């Protein structure tokens, strides 16, 4: 390495750190999968290949401690294959500890080797495990299913795998991709402006040949910008596996701390999502998984009495539905007591006895997302304070997503998260409400209906509209966002409702409500810009966008808008009652 400059060496070390941390995550996941399945030759092959990669890379950088420990891990895995000694829970913990030791050496600001004392202790334990001295004869062993094929055949299989799956990659800083995507967004806005200018020239300019050439050029530019935009978005997409695999080991250890067992199953890990969304998903998923392990799953004795397998099962499943990604976190635990939820909410004062009586099962279950409301019998270090599910909803909604829950007593609980594929670009419906221009993502809209003023009725104090025999609440964005006085207040006689209005029906968290719109502009693809200014920031808005004619459109967050509207109506109703209006 002496022939490298300091800058070149730092760059090489940075690549080594990033690659090694990714490999360590993959090894931890494969090791736990091997323990859970009992036989997985593919996982064992990947584990050995990963250990060999770390050994070679660290040796090139002079990190002899990391190289030696990786070599011993490789030896232990080889022994498990060829000597059929198997791998039990004790050895899994030992190898995971070894991976943690390597992680500690490479993940800091400065990459350093493993200390001699720590290295010696782990080398001795790994050597003992390799010799079979740490194996418990009565424990469940994990076999690899590969011992029958002895080594040439396996090498041939691995060689063909490398040849057939080889792909070329270039490592690019995430910030550079963000800059590229932002530029593509600006070009999309410029394209809208060009389209408008082109239309004006076509109507005012009499030379048909020139206008035809202009339109052809404009169409070509539009196609190229669309392709550039899609390519830039694709570069930001990563698989949800990136975050899913990070939970397997912590949940296993959390279950062990509580005298439980857990088997995590990951489905749809290859589903792609915007990188920023994948990173932001970690916190809400962590809250949901902690609650599932700590309070959702029963103890070993309880599961045995219920006739369930000793190991509790948690499933993380992802899928793509149109322009949305759906993520489900489910368990086969005790389920949620709906009546207990109602009682807790009533005792906490978050809902009245009259309102409790009107709640359906789905509405009552939705109360678990209220902050401070918990059905847990005891508070533990990780859950039980009524914060987890509330924090999960807040985090998901900040990403323009929704979260709902379903449960069955004695069978388990499932949480479903729906999110857009990306936060950068959306397809939205543009409309005016309260004299202002708004947009709402098409994924949140189910239909649009005409609205006559006489069709508006009040149900339980709220403005409502009868949609095919079912009353839905009406939301006025100006009132909910607190920039327009409610109807009937001072100055109402100076304002006239338009002769024809529309109801934009939103379907959020299994609830339907209508947004009153004065006019519909149409559908358009929008590049979202954040609202940073303290003068315009509002949690009912998810951002803004610039149209081709220079107008600014505010993008509504449907779920938050609905809750703000409910609070506004309740406050207004209370104000009118107190003041005798």
Notable characteristics:
581 residues, alpha+beta, six-stranded mixed sheet, five-stranded mixed sheet, 18 helices, disordered C terminus
Descriptive notes:
This protein is α+β, with helices and mostly antiparallel strands and 581 residues long. 48% of the residues lie in helices and 21% in strands. It is built from 18 helices and 18 strands. Strands 10-14-15-13-12-11 form a six-stranded mixed sheet. Strands 2-4-5-7-6 form a five-stranded mixed sheet. A five-stranded mixed sheet has the order 16-8-9-18-17. It is flat and about 85 Å long. Mean pLDDT is 78; it is low at 135-149, 151-167, 486-495 and 575-581.
Describe the structure concisely:
By secondary structure, this protein is of the alpha+beta class. The protein is built from 18 helices and 18 strands.
Please identify the structural class as seen in this structure. alpha+beta
Query: Which whole number gives the mean pLDDT?
Result: 78
Distance between the termini: 83 Å
Helix-residue proportion: 40-55%
Total number of beta strands:
18
Proportion of strand residues: 15-25%
Order of strands across the widest beta sheet? 10-14-15-13-12-11
Task: Note the overall shape.
Answer: flat
Which regions contain 5 or more consecutive residues with pLDDT less than 50?
135-149, 151-167, 486-495, 575-581
Number of alpha- plus pi-helical segments: 18
Rg, please?
Answer: 29 Å
Task: List strands and helices in order, with pairings.
Elements: H1 6-37, H2 41-60, H3 64-82, H4 89-106, H5 116-130, H6 152-165, H7 174-204, H8 208-236, E1 237-239, H9 241-244, H10 248-257, E2 261-267, E3 272-274, H11 275-296, H12 300-305, E4 311-321, E5 324-331, H13 338-348, H14 353-358, H15 361-365, H16 388-398, E6 402-408, E7 412-420, E8 425-433, E9 436-441, E10 445-451, E11 457-459, E12 462-467, E13 470-475, H17 477-480, E14 501-508, E15 511-517, E16 519-527, E17 541-546, E18 552-556, H18 558-579
Parallel strand pairs: 2-4, 9-18, 13-15
Antiparallel strand pairs: 1-3, 4-5, 5-7, 6-7, 8-9, 8-16, 10-14, 11-12, 12-13, 14-15, 17-18
